[in-house]
Amino acid sequence: MIGSRISAPLRLLAVAGAVLAFAGCAGDEEPAAGPAAGEEAAPPPGADFAHVHGLGVNPSDGALLIATHTGLFRAAPGSPSAQRVGDSQQDVMGFTVVGADRFLGSGHPDPRAGGPPNLGLIRSQDAGREWQQVSLLGKTDFHVLRAAGRVVYGFDGSSGLLFVSRDGGRTWQERTPPAPLIDLAIDPGDDRRVVVATPDGLFSSPDGGKGWRPLDAQRVGLLAWSSDEALYLVGGDGAVAASADQGRSWKDRGTIGGQPAAFVADADDLYAALADGTVSASADGGRGWAVRARP
Predict the structure, then answer these.
(1) What's the rounded Cα separation, in Å, for the pair 221 and 81?
(2) CATH number for the domain including 256?
(3) Quick one: what percent of the chain has pLDDT higher than 70?
(4) N or C, where is the chain less crowded by C-beta within 10 Å?
């Protein structure tokens, strides 16, 4: 079981699967020649979502946002049906909600549009209908993107560097992570403290990525830090574990029922997307899960 103690041979298999599943969908990367090179035509605006990369909840209305390989989708409160937001079919590799109707993203442009193959950091201030360039256009492809207030962390899948901004993403400092990042979670009580998941296990930094110390070499997965300061991890087999001491020790919880594609906490609620696009939610710390949205 990924997310619990496992033998070395099994861990190697688990890590290999985790890298493919979590590291930003390596198979989704476009060739250097351009974002549309060698790809099939993008689906029509009303097509079902697939290849989920990120999740979030809009504080303004409680709607679930689903960032995918073919654009951003929205499931209204109480509805399992998700609809495309706007008409963009950009590949939203990195995604995070930073406030009411305000989102940050990264990835690759709509195949119908021109421009550099990497979007750098983009933002929306109208719930995802329109996006504006913020910084690093053509330079970075954030596979992991997390924010707390004005502090933004982005792991660039191209360079392998961790970028840190304290002004909303306008300017950046580069950090060297302990290994390629699978995921990153920010301590809700201290935006300089982060825990990262890598193929080599979990690491923590107390100073915004300047220094690192190992936490657990046997755990690999996606991370979410809830507002009650519980840190959660979902492994490659869907098993959920929780930590009350910033990732030093863990207790098993429930299971999401399959391989995760995205994982996020909103206040004390948890949301997880499966590889088939189904999104489930838990209101009891990961013990029980119910379908929130389907493709």
Answers:
(1) 27
(2) 2.130.10.10
(3) 84
(4) N
Q: Checking DSSP bridges between strand 71-75 and strand 82-84, what pairing results, if any?
A: antiparallel
| Domain assignment of residue 33, yes or no | no
Residue 54 burial (10 A CB sphere; 0-12, 13-18, 19+): buried
Q: Decide if 102 is inside a domain.
A: yes
Whether residue 204 contacts residue 216, with contact meaning beta carbons closer than 8 Å, is answered with no
Q: Is the pLDDT of residue 186 over 60?
A: yes
Cite the beta strand spans of 49-166 per DSSP E: 52-57, 64-68, 71-75, 82-84, 91-99, 102-108, 121-124, 132-135, 142-148, 151-156, 162-165
- Residue carrying the six token digits 């995070």: 96
Task: Give me the half-sphere count of Cα atoms (radius 13 Å) on the Cβ side of residue 145.
Answer: 30
Residues 6+ apart with CB under 8 A from 9: none
Cα–Cα distance measured from residue 144 to residue 133, given in angstroms and rounded to the nearest whole number: 18
Q: Among candidates 23, 33, 52, 39, which has minimal Cα distance to 117?
A: 33
- Which residue type does 69 have? H
**Cα R_g (the chain), whole angstroms:** 17
User: Taking the alpha carbons of 202, 145, 69, 103 in that order, is the dihedral positive or negative?
Assistant: positive
Provide mean pLDDT across the span 160-170: 98
Range of the structural domain that residue 233 is part of: 8-28+51-293
Residue found by looking up tokens 């979030």 in the block: 56
Tell me how far apart the alpha carbons of residues 174 and 63 are, in angstroms, rounded to a whole number: 33
Asked if residue 278 lies in contact with residue 68, where contact means CB atoms within 8 angstroms, the answer is: no
What's the whole-number average pLDDT of the chain?
87
**Separation between Cα atoms, residue 118 and residue 158, nearest integer Å:** 9
| Nearest of 43, 45, 74 to residue 58 by alpha carbon | 74
Q: Are 6 and 213 contacting, i.e. CB atoms less than 8 angstroms apart?
A: no
Please tell me the predicted confidence (pLDDT) of residue 25: 46
Neighbours of 283 (CB within 10 A): 13
Q: How many domains does the chain have?
A: 1
